[in-house]
Amino acid sequence: MTEVSVVICCYTEDRWNDLVASVASVAAQTVVPGELILVVDHNPALLQRATEALTRDSVRVIGNDRTVGLSGARNTGFLAAKGDIVAFLDDDAAADPWWLAELLAPYDDPDVGAVGGRAVPAWPDGSAPPWLPAELHWIVGCAYTGQPVELAEVRNIMGCAMSFRRDHLERLGGFAESVGRTATLPLGCEETELCIRLRQRVPGAKVLLQPAATVRHRVSEDRTRRRYVRQRSWAEGLSKAAVSRLVGAQDALSTERSYLRSVLPKAVLRELRAGNPAGAGGVFVSAAAAGAGYLRGLARKPDPAADPVPAYTIDIANGEATWDGDAEVLVRSGGVVLGGARRGEKVGELAGLLPAQARDRPPRPSVQPRVSVVVATAGKPSDVRRCVASVLATGYPDLEVLVVDNIPNGPREELLALAASDDRVRCLHEPVPGASRARNLGAHEATGDVLAFTDDDTVVDAGWPAELVAELAQPGTSCVTGLVAPLCLDTPAQVWFEAFGGFGKGYRRQVFTEDARNLLSPGRFGSGNNMAWHRDAFLALGGFDERLGPGRRTHSGEDLDLYLRLVRSGGRIVYTPHALVRHEHRATEAQLLRQLRGYGTGLAAMYLVHAGRRGGLRELAAALPRGLPVLLGRRPAGNDDEASPGFPRRLVFEQVRGTLSGPLALLRERIR
């Protein structure tokens, strides 16, 4: 039987009794879930109360460690989940005993990616207000007239009682945290956007509504007032405008068009004939408020530097040749990556690059060597689980994953359990802090001829190991790096990081050998969170310099140092855009500033290490005029072009600040 995890998100103690009833309803299901995860959205008092009162064998209480709001809480929940299916239940909804059984049944069809249920309103006075006809019950988060009454395929499901395949959530990066409800604003549409994205990015995926999977959704007194109806309808219009910008108006409004043309006019006529002008007026008020909100949302001038936008993929091999949204789009054809676009007009232009890009992509070897993937981590086990799941899902025939837990008191139980769940996964422990040291341990323990490295906050593409292996099979190639695209751009900090330079190194295959022009721009070679080596070449260089990198005072630079050592010894590095991973960037400005400061520190320390090697000082002096802007933060390291101006200049200041601290950081590491 398919294992299911149930996630309930909560944010206020005002709903405590509802929350207790919701948890109890999950325990009473005819199909017992594997686990119930209760996510508390940035409310320490509620977190403590729920931990003390509700924690039991099958219930885990955790805090939302992502952005404030329902989308961030839901993402926290699914990332912590272990089940193949993740079901979501609102904290003010109580599930009927057969809810889970009815939700799970359609998943016998492997094409089904999401199944939603039906929410029955529990009114405070036992019945709906006369001015709120059934066609408007979506306003209070419940089933409404116009929805299917039998199992049917729909555009999207409702958030209070829904479910998804966990591997789809991981692949898509979860809910867009730039969309959705917060404690103070009744926005929505995060599940609508996710369902549209699921259908766009997973060929053949079905989204189903199962009305037999019912929950009782309590409607609070404040939601039965006309003011709330106007406010919620206005917010729905704003949300629909936001989704239209992201996925295109055609997909975002397909259901609403038929709803306005057919369902609402019939409701008005029925209410008037029944002698209930208040009901007809409620329909007019709601439609007008939603329309005004939508127009207001469209009228807002977007800020391309800071407006959060999801990161999507269009595969023209599946017939996806157009795009009228405003998201960051990666365009590909099967395994061939063509380029990136922000607006749909460019998609057709990129399609013309397919012949050249395909010719430049080497064939896969007839014999595929064993690949050892090393993931060093001191972060959240949920991120590690997501990363490892994506590696295993590639289906590469001869694969092992070595998770190196780099914390003093480890290894952690969650990672040991992850290793026990699949014989291709091994868990190692490196108690001395330092990503370089942890990676070196993984490399020495590996059994594969190919060593691949990625970070715990990435999701790898299905063809990732095969593309790396194909490039390493080319004569003279010792190291391969690949494209690192954003997993999501849900916060301004994530958008700024991409504008500052990001991890991406372009959409064209490049070959690097010993060249003085490269010496002060080693970041052009690629990023350490997406690289692979012939094991012998890696070990011959002595692995990563353990004075450099995360977990040390130098903070970074270990990958760039290794690239420099390779090209100086006559080796060759190939960068390919077709070996793709997606990286989850830092979500807050404070995290981003620390990251860029660390990059500056590591960059300066790495150059000082290089200067101490034979001939290194002379090489650096010759390359200094070209590389000085990199050191001073005028240009992000690793990019030939100037960074986009769409980011705060304080980001540059932080990198410069870090650069100035590099010499002292390296000195302290040497003393240590």
Characterize the structure shown.
Helix content is 40%, strand content 20%. It is of the alpha/beta class. It has three domains: 4-222, Alpha-Beta Complex (Spore Coat Polysaccharide Biosynthesis Protein SpsA, Chain A), CATH 3.90.550.10; 311-357, no CATH class; 360-671, Spore Coat Polysaccharide Biosynthesis Protein SpsA, Chain A (Alpha-Beta Complex), CATH 3.90.550. β11 and β12 (336-341) form a beta hairpin. α7 packs parallel to α10 (277-299) and α19 (558-568) packs parallel to α20. The longest helix is centred in the middle third of the chain and has 23 residues, at 277-299. It is elongated. 53% of the residues are buried.
Draw up the topology in text:
Elements: E1 4-10, H1 16-27, E2 35-40, H2 44-54, E3 59-63, H3 70-80, E4 85-90, E5 93-95, H4 99-104, E6 112-122, E7 152-153, E8 161-165, H5 166-172, H6 190-201, E9 206-218, H7 226-247, H8 249-252, H9 254-273, H10 277-299, E10 311-315, E11 328-333, E12 336-341, H11 345-351, H12 354-359, E13 371-377, H13 381-392, E14 399-405, H14 413-420, E15 425-429, H15 435-445, E16 450-455, E17 458-460, H16 464-472, E18 477-486, H17 492-500, E19 510-512, E20 530-534, H18 535-540, H19 558-568, E21 572-583, H20 589-611, H21 616-631, H22 650-671
Helix pairs in contact: 6-7, 7-10, 9-10, 19-20, 20-21, 20-22
Structure at a glance:
Helix content is 40%, strand content 20%. It is an alpha/beta fold. The radius of gyration is 26 Å and the shape is elongated.
For the structure shown, list the relevant keywords.
21 strands; 40% helix; elongated; 3 domains; nine-stranded mixed beta sheet; Spore Coat Polysaccharide Biosynthesis Protein SpsA, Chain A; 672 residues; alpha/beta
